[in-house]
Each structure stands twice: as C-alpha cells, then as structure tokens.
Amino acid sequence: MTSFQMPNSADQINLREWLDEQSRQLGFDGLRITDTHLGDASERLNQWLAEGRHGQMEYMARHAQLRSDPGLLVPGTVRVICVTMNYLSPVIDFDQEWQRLAEPTHAVVSMYARGRDYHKVMRNRLQEFALLIEKQIGSFGYRVFTDSAPLMEVELARKAGLGWRGKHTLLLNRESGSTFFLGEILVDVPLPIDQEEESHCGTCQSCIDICPTQAITAPYQLDARRCISYLTIENPDAIPVEFRRAIGNRVYGCDDCQLICPWNKFAQRTALPDFAERHGLGRASLLQLWSWTEDEFEKRHEGSAIRRIGYQRWRRNLAVAMGNALADEAVSEVDKDELREVLRNALPTSDEMVVEHIEWALDS
C-alpha cells in the first residue's frame, strides 16, 4: 500500500520536472504518464486475435484479458509511467541500409538487434528509476516492464502522449521517428496524466507500399503471419515458401517500413554504448555468419536479443538468404559456387528444418 500523498499543484509541477530530469539522466529520451483505461483497444486486439493474425504467438491470446487492463496485471495500478529509449547507433546511415538490402551476399540484421538485448538494458534502468522515485516520494506500489508482460505497450505510450500510432502500427513521434524502445512503470500513485498526441501521418502510406510481403494489409492493420520480423524471429517452424523470395537477405527482422518513413529523418542517435553494433552485424556477409558454429553463435550473441531465436532458426534464416543470393543474376558464379559448397557441406549435420531450407536454397 502506498504511503504517498498527492502534493499541491506547485509541488506536482516540481515532481514532474524531477521525474523528467531523472529519466534523462538514466538514458531515457521521453517520459509521459497515462491512466489505465484503454478504451476500445482491447476490442481491436480481440478481433485481431480472432482473425488469427498473431500467427503462432500464442502468448498474445493466452493473456488477452490481462492486456486489456494494466490493473488486472498489477492490482492497484492507477497510472502508467511510459518512457522511450532511442536505440539508433551513430554509425547507422539509412542510405547505406538500403544499399545493403540491394547486395544479395550481405546479411541484413534489424537495426535494433545489433547491440545488447534491450530487455536487459531497459529493465535495469527502469528498476533503478523506480527506486529513485521511492526515495523521493516514499514507499509506493510498482512494477517495471519492457516487452516482458501482457501489456499493450504501444497503446499505453500513444495514450500517454509519447507519439501516435503510424500506419505500420509502430509508435511515431516528431522528435525521434520510430527508432526507440518502450518501457513502463505501473504505479499505484494517482499522478497527473498527459495529453494524447495527434496523428501526423496524413495521406502518406509509404510504409504500406514498401512492405516486401504486404504484411500491412491496410492502414493500422498488420498481419504478423506475413511480416518478415515475425517470420524470421517469432516463427518457430519452416518459413512459408511463398515469402522466401521476398525476404531477400534479411536474416533477422526487417526495417523497411521504418527506413521509408518520412518521420525517421528526425531519428535520434543514442549516446548509450549498450546499443553500439557488436560483432560486425551491420556489415557482415552471409558466408561470415554461416561460418559460425553453434558455440560461436551462443558466445557472440551473449546478451543479445538474437540469441533467443536459437542456432537452428538462425541457420534457417541464413539458408533462405543464401538461396535468394543463388537466384540473383547479379551474384557472380564464383560467389555462387562458394555458397553452394558451404550449404552442401552443412547438410549432414543440420536438423530437419534447416535441411529443408538448404535444399530449397540449392534448388534456386
């Protein structure tokens, strides 16, 4: 039970200024506060689930009721402190990202995953923030989250005023586009809430047009089963043949809808060393990543979000990209011979799923 008493108006302003300052010192780039009422968002989620658009992300359906009300997830919650943390490394250049997508033998890893696992970075800093708040205002009830619980994070952040939902369903804001992570502190303190942000997408639908697999089926409508991020990360099974060509050389996630978004010309670079590129993931070739043994995969991706997909999915994704390189007329025969050789050599020691993708690649 909280011992906190709401201060007068002047002290509320001082508290809010203190929260903003402390959040900045901890590396957060935005902070807003909202209540727990999500309106018709839960109905839209249930409709999305009923249509099966979540694919095999069964956890989305399993905890759907909790997602509809943060107060059910953490009893006593009346406010949600929402924060953002920019992740874009200073070395990332969007023009170069497009160039790499056009180079079939290069491997493309989603920009957010090239540094440390954001779950750990955000969670530790959110916990530190909550303890600082407790020292400032006294004992109160709270829990911290970052993509780690049945919580409608984007909707809460939107409602708190951290941005608006883009037509690709990601959160956008005018200061940093969409290249940031979200985190929350659920609290039992009735802090003053912030106003929502108006949408600024207008008639633009660049994200819809650019999607390689047409996963954005309409403005604000995403079919995860078609999304390359889902197919290469969340999907535990074989990648459907109908999407393999469209995946190109993307071996972990996809950034196309962010790269094309006009608002990301304002994308802010992070100053946090945690999100600096590791192991050359922004410039590695398919052959370099394929050469990693399972032990090397585990060691190199220690502390990385990529490690969660495991070695077999990693090889599955690489095999698809290598098959696309083999089918590309721009790739030299010398490079193709090398790709074929390493794929054939891997057949005897690969599991059934990876073998199926290797054979598909060799038939390209």
In what order do the strands lie side by side in the largest sheet?
Answer: 1-2-7-4
Q: What is the residue-averaged pLDDT?
A: 94
Estimate what percentage of residues fall within beta strands.
5-15%
Low-confidence stretches: none
Could you characterize the architecture of this molecule?
This protein is α+β, with helices and mostly antiparallel strands. Helix content is 42%, strand content 11%. It is built from 17 helices and 10 strands. The strands form 4 sheets. Strands 1-2-7-4 form a 4-stranded antiparallel beta sheet, with helices on both faces. Strands 3-10 form a two-stranded parallel sheet. Strand 8 and strand 9 form a beta hairpin. Helix 15 packs antiparallel against helix 16.
Give a brief description.
With 364 residues, this protein is of the alpha+beta class.
Topology:
Layout: H1 9-25, E1 30-34, H2 41-50, H3 58-62, H4 64-67, H5 70-73, E2 79-86, H6 94-101, E3 108-109, H7 118-137, E4 142-145, H8 153-160, E5 164-165, E6 171-172, E7 180-187, H9 206-210, E8 216-218, E9 221-222, H10 228-234, H11 241-247, E10 250-252, H12 256-259, H13 286-290, H14 294-300, H15 310-326, H16 333-346, H17 352-362
Parallel strand pairs: 3-10
Antiparallel strand pairs: 1-2, 2-7, 4-7, 5-6, 8-9
List key phrases describing it.
364 residues, alpha+beta, 2 domains, four-stranded antiparallel β-sheet, 17 helices, 11% strand
